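Recall that a protein's primary structure is simply its ordered list of amino acids. Everything else, from secondary elements to tertiary packing, is in principle encoded there. The following example makes that idea concrete.
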Amino acid sequence: ETTSLTNSAILSKSYISVSDEKGGDINVTAKTLSLSNSRLNTDTSGKANAGNIAINADDAVNLTNSAQLRTDTYGIGNAGKITIDAKGAVTFDGLSRDQNGKPIENGSPSFVDTGTGVASQVGSLNSDPQKDIPGFGQGGDIEIKAHSLNLKNGAALSSTTYGGESFNPDGTIIYKNAGNITITVDDAVNL
């Protein structure tokens, strides 16, 4: 069976700043998973960590039309880990279509907001620096295991940090890291 989401979102958020509870995980097991203009997202803006996202597919995973898997932190907690384990191809196609069906490309620099793919982010930048949201947690890792991986039309895998700085007791600065991206395929990675 194919599990499909179109124009949908599954969100797991941890907003209570005093909470020590981890955000909820999102786990999907399917023969084939297809997401179109949809998002699976875990994030945190407090002390708790964001949840993890785990996708297990007996066949393929396809994200198109601005579909995203995201885990972010805008607080002290860490972003979650994103794992995709598919026996077939994993394909991220950044080609989106407008309401008239005309292809439009998005991705690249604006991926974080609109592109197709997988992202882990610490904090966020805005066009107005006074509205920047620093994150103080660690970025989440992204791990993909598949027969093959296809990134097309501006789709992206992204682990970024716009985090704030925190301090050790001795006053030295602690900079937080973005997560690692690990890709393991049996066949080819096509970009």
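Residues 14-19, 105-113 have pLDDT under 50 and may be disordered. The two ends are 28 Å apart (CA to CA).
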